[in-house]
Amino acid sequence: MKPRVFISSTYYDLKYVRENLEHFIKQYGFDSVLFESGNVTFEHGKKLDISCYNEVDLCQLMILIVGGRYGSASSNESQAKIRKKYDEQYISITRKEFETAQKNGIPIFVFIDKNVHSEYQTFKRNEEIFNSLKKDFEKKHKHQKDEKYFDFAYVDSTNVFKFIDAIIHLPTKTFEKSEEIIEYLRSQLAGMFFLYLDQLKRESTNKEILSSVTELNNAVSKIDIIIEALGRQVIEKDKLKEVEEKQRQIEEKSFLDALTLFMGQIKEGIDSTDLLDNTEAEQLAKALINDFFNKDFQNYESLIKTLKLILLDLPFHERLTIAPKIYSMHRTYNNIIKPLLNTQARRNEFKKQLESRLELPF
Predict the structure, then answer these.
(1) 8 by DSSP, 3-state: which?
(2) Who's near 291: CB < 8 A, 6+ residues apart?
(3) Which end of the chain, C or N, has fewer beta carbons within 10 A?
(4) What's the CA gap between 129 and 28, in Å, rounded?
(5) Using one digit for the tens of pLDDT, what is the confidence trace for 7-32?
(6) Rounded-to-integer distance, Cα 91 and Cα 71, Å
(7) Helix-strand-coil percent breakdown of the chain, rounded to 5?
(8) Interval 233-246: pLDDT, tens
(9) Which of 282, 271, 291, 262 is nearest to 354 (CA)?
(10) Cα–Cα distance between 177 and 114 in angstroms, integer?
(11) pLDDT tens digit sequence for 95-127
């Protein structure tokens, strides 16, 4: 299956940028999703914009482009209220598409027109002055609220600035020409592909170690059978102790090999947390401990929700670095480590090493 890329922006002012991006995406072998190209399935009996939001859910990537127009209101908004006043705050279709993608954890590349971004910076530096002008204007023109209290050179509404407020914390890129967007995307997609291949290589190494641990577990099972057979034959006490000691040594080696593998994965995960601030790293460590010791972990749903909350504001390529390592840790824990934690001594040793790796007492 091909990755689906949703292009979100206002239409008329960014028409040619959208066309160029659609061509670029198709060159990569991806499926581009734009309403004007007939890629959105419009559902009978529903508002047109609702179909766009549903289509966002089916995509793996979003490209958000912010220009000088704020755009039409989402069908949830009151048109009469919006037209009542020039700067009435409302949610546009483009903004709703962005919020839908963000809610579902879809990676988003954000691009802002350079002139719009410059005007946004001016607005933020003088926001108190603009608000004062607005109040004075409303006092003098109580019956003419459709008038503009201030004309901006590059935007049609202060709602554009409010939208940028909502996305400015994300990694953003300004642009003057569509070629700048394309060049940036080409570099980012190449980096994502490299990280994916690197992850595959690491998983291959881990599988070899896991295979070795599995063989040791099989050996332990065979020794159990031998002990049972020897017991039935009422062997001498010393001989039985010798066999039991050998079994214990093999089990201990199996446990230590598995622990070495797991703590190696923990180290990789800690190296990745250099991308996080201290609060985020502590939240992540607590989440891991909670899943390891307080839950019978059967699937990744709770971990995925935790990761989305903690890693949401990171650039996509940094999330791609951290998340697979954490999933890999949980697979190793549930498939290899957990079955071996059958004594209190082993549980204590595991907690001790995990506490040391995460640098967080529990």
Answers:
(1) strand
(2) 297, 302, 303, 330
(3) N
(4) 47
(5) 999 999 999 999 999 999 999 889 99
(6) 9
(7) 65, 5, 25
(8) 555 566 667 767 77
(9) 262
(10) 9
(11) 999 999 999 999 999 999 999 999 999 999 998
**H helical segments located in 75-126:** 79-84, 93-103, 114-125
- The values of phi and psi at residue 44, to 5°, are -65, 135
- Report whether 154 contacts 94 (CB < 8 A): no
- In this prediction, residue 222 carries a pLDDT of 64
> In Å, how far from its chain's centre is CA 220?
41
Concatenated DSSP letters for 223-262?
A: HHHHHHHHHHTT--HHHHHHHHHHHHHHHHHHHHHHHHHH
Q: Is residue 62 within 8 Å of residue 56, measured between CB atoms? A: yes
**Token pair in block for residue 114:** 């350079």
Task: Determine the pLDDT at residue 41.
Answer: 81
DSSP 36: G
C-alpha dihedral (247, 204, 283, 285), degrees to nearest 10: 20
- Whether the predicted model's global pTM rises above the 0.90 cut: no
**Above 50 in pLDDT, residue 297?**
no
The amino acid at residue 334 is N
The whole-number pLDDT of residue 224 equals 65
Distance CA 299, CA 318 (A): 23
Burial readout 286-302 (b: 16 or more C-beta within 10 A, e: otherwise): ebbbebbeeeebeeeee
Place of tokens 């209101």: 73
Mean pLDDT of all residues belonging to the chain? 77
Mean pLDDT of 215-241: 61
In order of start, what are the domains of the chain with their CATH numbers? 4-176 (3.40.50), 192-358 (no CATH)
Q: Which of 100-104, 315-319, 349-353 has the lowest mean pLDDT?
A: 315-319
Bridge-based pairing of strands 108-113 and 4-8 is unpaired
Length of the chain equals 362
